[in-house]
């Protein structure tokens, strides 16, 4: 085979691969819409979009808002999985829209997008996050020192840091809390995210308010409401072992060892 033929075949293969890589597909985005100024009931609306399968659900929502229907309302900020503002139910599971690729959620079928559950829907995909953040504030998510403010850096060993390292990754997206059936049925439950953030400080060697946080969570709406369904762990976009953290807080309440 001549060199020219080999180069021609190689070029054709590259062209075919490039064409395949940028192939676009028709996607049906089925979005749950709600506008309290228009109707007391939510409705499902379908949008047909031409998308690259490697694009994200967030890209599809942008396309709807910017090109098809400017009234669509949703939250988003960094668009890179750090801010946690675009948590929503996608095909029945809590996910971050900015981290969910179309190709990974069977784009041949309609992709359903709806607000996270358990919090009041304000409009379309936007929910009232205040109850969620109030539970977060209630567990005192900050370092507390009983004496005078330290004048030097409070050093930690690698082992001490490792004790709570996993729960430092929380981005307060509410995916875990709003995947919890206990929270759905009783909004008074602190919820997984608040307990995770309490864990982060209860087991921090620099903190001196672990007992206070444990007493806050030793409540009918605290850690004992957890039924270990593992929905929270499955939903966490940061890979935090949420259920494990909750069980460690329960154990600390019983043993008073932390």
Automatic annotation (TrEMBL):
Molecular function via GO: 2 iron, 2 sulfur cluster binding; 3 iron, 4 sulfur cluster binding; 4 iron, 4 sulfur cluster binding; electron transfer activity; metal ion binding; succinate dehydrogenase (quinone) activity
Enzyme class: oxidoreductase
PROSITE patterns, per the entry: 2FE2S_FER_2 (PS51085), 4FE4S_FER_1 (PS00198), 4FE4S_FER_2 (PS51379)
Domain 2Fe-2S ferredoxin-type residues, every copy: 36-119
Cofactor note: Binds 1 [4Fe-4S] cluster.
Catalytic activity: a quinone + succinate = fumarate + a quinol
Transmembrane portions of the chain: none
Cofactor(s), names only, from the UniProt record: [4Fe-4S] cluster; [3Fe-4S] cluster; [2Fe-2S] cluster
Keyword Transcription: no
InterPro entries: 2Fe-2S_ferredoxin-like_sf, 2Fe-2S_ferredoxin-type, 4Fe4S_Fe-S-bd, 4Fe4S_Fe_S_CS, Beta-grasp_dom_sf, Helical_ferredxn, SDH/FRD_Iron-Sulfur, Succ_DH/fum_Rdtase_Fe-S
Name of the protein in its database record: Succinate dehydrogenase iron-sulfur subunit
The species this protein was found in: Streptantibioticus cattleyicolor (strain ATCC 35852 / DSM 46488 / JCM 4925 / NBRC 14057 / NRRL 8057) (Streptomyces cattleya)
Lineage, uppermost ranks: Bacteria, Bacillati, Actinomycetota, Actinomycetes, Kitasatosporales
């Amino acid at each position: 085979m001549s060199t020219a033929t080999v180069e021609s075949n190689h070029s054709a293969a590259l062209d075919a691969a490039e064409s395949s890589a940028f192939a676009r597909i028709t996607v049906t985005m089925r979005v749950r819409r709600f506008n309290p100024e228009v109707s007391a009931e939510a409705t499902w609306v379908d949008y047909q979009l031409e998308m690259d399968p490697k694009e994200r659900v967030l890209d599809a929502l942008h396309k709807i808002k910017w090109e098809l229907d400017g009234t669509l309302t949703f939250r988003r900020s960094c668009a890179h999985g750090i801010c946690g503002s675009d948590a929503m139910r996608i095909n029945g599971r809590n996910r971050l829209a900015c981290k969910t690729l179309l190709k990974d959620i069977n784009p041949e079928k309609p992709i359903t997008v709806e607000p996270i559950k358990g919090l009041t829907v304000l409009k379309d995909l936007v929910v009232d996050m205040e109850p969620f953040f109030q539970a977060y504030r209630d567990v005192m998510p900050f370092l507390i020192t009983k004496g005078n403010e330290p004048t030097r850096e409070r050093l930690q060993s690698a082992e001490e840091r490792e004790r709570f390292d996993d729960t430092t990754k929380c981005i307060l997206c509410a995916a875990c809390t709003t995947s919890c059936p206990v929270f759905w049925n009783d909004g008074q439950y602190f919820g997984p995210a608040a307990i995770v953030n309490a864990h982060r400080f209860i087991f921090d060697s620099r903190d001196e308010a672990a007992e206070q946080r444990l007493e806050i969570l030793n409540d009918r709406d605290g850690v004992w409401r957890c039924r270990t369904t593992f929905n929270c762990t499955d939903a966490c976009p940061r890979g935090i072992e949420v259920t494990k953290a909750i069980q460690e807080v329960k154990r600390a309440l019983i043993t008073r060892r932390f």
